[in-house]
Amino acid sequence: MKKDEVSIVIPVHNEENYLPFSLRPLLDLKGIRIIIVLDRSTDRSEVIVRKFAEKHGNTLIVKKEVAGKTDNPAWEAYMEGVKYAKPGKVLFLGADVVIDKKIFNYLDRAGLLKFRYVNYASHFRYSFEKIVQRFFSRSYCVECMDTEIISAIPFVSESYEDIVRGRTKLIDVINAGAFASEFVYVDDVECLHLRPRVPVDRQFLQGYVRHMQSVPFFRVLLHSLLYRKVHVLRGYVFRMLRKRNTHGR
Q1: How do strand 33-39 and strand 6-12 relate by DSSP bridges?
Q2: Which one, 40, 44, 98, 123, has the greatest CB density within 10 A?
Q3: Radius of gyration of the chain, Cα coordinates, nearest whole angstrom
Q4: Distances (CA, A) of 8 to 36, 94, 123, 228, 234
């Protein structure tokens, strides 16, 4: 698939703690259109987004000023961004998610795709959740769809999950079930869900993202030593070991 046939839609609502990490890997995607929907943010999100747009170039910023009337305001923001997408594929990306670039290797597989995402596991609680998910459930939260399919989705008051699972009252249950069954689940792509709430977490996350961007190990090691940020190194090594375990399966 050509890059100009892919659009990434990102809704943003008070995400200043996450945007410096989630937007950074997108700077390399020069040929891909990025649509950022500013949904009534009151923090520094808009400032961060506009600085990103200056660097990336192929970025459109849409301001959504009115509160939604559905049970899923995030999905409403996604749909606002879709209006500006070009024909092709639309990748829905949360403002608190770091993308795995392998995602672009699978866009031609099907009209609807779901990719795995993992929680940032520096805290015990998140580590525990990750273990539980690994053995008892699969967490798929990053989605990609053909624009033709998106245009056929009825915009109703129920949440998006109710629609795809056939629990909505306003559309035919059979059609909703068929729509849900068309999803293809991809296990090889793991996007990172961010939780950088304290300085130690942010250091860990910086290291994690640096490994995603293929920053050389010695540079991360030198940075950690010079600035006494050992958790940057810990995050880098954490992802490095996790990727080796994944490839070894």
Answers
A1: parallel
A2: 98
A3: 19
A4: 8, 10, 30, 36, 30
Q: Name the amino acid, one letter, at 3.
A: K
- Residues (pLDDT < 70) of the chain are 1, 3, 66-72, 119-141, 152-182, 195-202, 243-249
The domain spans of the chain are 3-196, 198-249
Grouping H, G, I as helix, E, B as strand and the rest as coil, residue 82 is: helix
Instruction: Check: CB of residue 143 under 8 Å from CB of residue 92.
Output: yes
The CATH label, of 3.90.550.10, 3.40.50.10190, 3.90.1150.10, 3.40.50.300, for the domain at 3-196 is 3.90.550.10
Contacts 24+ apart (CB under 8 A), 209-212: 209/21, 209/24, 209/25, 209/98, 209/235, 210/235, 210/236, 211/235, 211/236, 211/239, 211/240, 211/243, 212/25, 212/98, 212/100, 212/101, 212/239
pTM (predicted TM-score) = 0.69
